[in-house]
Amino acid sequence: MLAIGNPFGVGQTVTSGIVSALGRNQLGINTFENFIQTDAAINPGNSGGALVDVNGNLMGINTAIYSRSGGSMGIGFAIPVSTAKLVLEGIVKDGVVTRGWIGVEPADLSPELMETFGVRAGKGVLITGVLQNGPAAQAGVRPGDVVVQVGGNDVGNVSELLSMVAALKPGAATPFKLQRRDDAMEVTVTPGKRPKPRPQQQSPQGLPQR
After folding, report:
1. Are residues 187 and 126 in the same domain?
2. For residues 165 and 70, what is the distance between their CA atoms, to the nearest angstrom?
3. Please, what is the Cα angle at 111 between 109 and 116, to 5 degrees?
4. Which end of the chain has fewer CB atoms at under 10 Å, N or C?
5. Are 137 and 131 in contact (CB under 8 A)?
6. Which helix (DSSP H) or strand (DSSP E) does residue 162 occupy?
7. Helix (H, G, I), strand (E, B), or coil: what is residue 151?
8. Residue 202 maps to a domain
9. Whether residue 25 is found in the same domain as residue 53
């Protein structure tokens, strides 16, 4: 894997390495995270540069590094080309990137939350809050429900749910499989457009609604 860029403004450079992981998330870099991890040296100034394979095929866009010094420490992250393509197509078509939104507060399953909400599901994402009159509420989703599938795809954690919902087309009805205590059920949710963030009104932790 080759990373191309102009680190520190010294001129174009190419570094090589391997892909050590796919689908990295929960890094605190962005709300929507699905990164390629590579040890190809990525330094300040490489962001926006190409991450290509040995045949020159574009694999991702260099985005961030893990560093205590400001320089490369062998852990770099790139946005997958599939994600970059979706963003590009949205900008070309509509002038903006439109993400789906259903108006819920999700949480990964934990023994404490499962006991609090009386949850008996073994997998999925717990819904701890539902926005009144939001898309999920209108579809019948309730606090304490566990989302197991979105559009036929299994949901394993909050990051996966967030990415799946964001990829939904606003206005397009989508089946959600839920576990409500002992009952398995399916509801049809029609996503809306994700509201623009309002930094001044975020919680101290900056937790966004999904």
Report:
1. yes
2. 34
3. 90
4. N
5. yes
6. helix 158-167
7. coil
8. no
9. yes
Q: What is the CA radius of gyration of the chain?
A: 20
DSSP string, 39-72: -S---TT-TT-EEE-TT--EEEEEEEE--SSSS-
Q: Environment class of residue 68 by beta-carbon count within 10 Å: exposed (0-12), middle (13-18) or buried (19+)?
A: exposed
Other C-beta atoms closer than 10 Å to the C-beta of 10 total: 9
Q: What tens-digit pLDDT sequence spans the chain (210 residues)? A: 788 877 777 777 787 777 777 766 555 555 555 678 887 777 777 777 888 888 888 888 887 766 555 555 667 888 888 777 777 777 887 777 777 899 999 998 888 888 888 888 788 999 999 999 999 999 999 999 999 999 999 998 888 898 889 888 889 999 999 999 888 999 999 999 877 665 544 434 444 445
CA–CA distances in Å: residue 124 to residues 30, 51, 108: 22, 33, 8
In which domain, by residue range, is 123 found?
Answer: 100-193
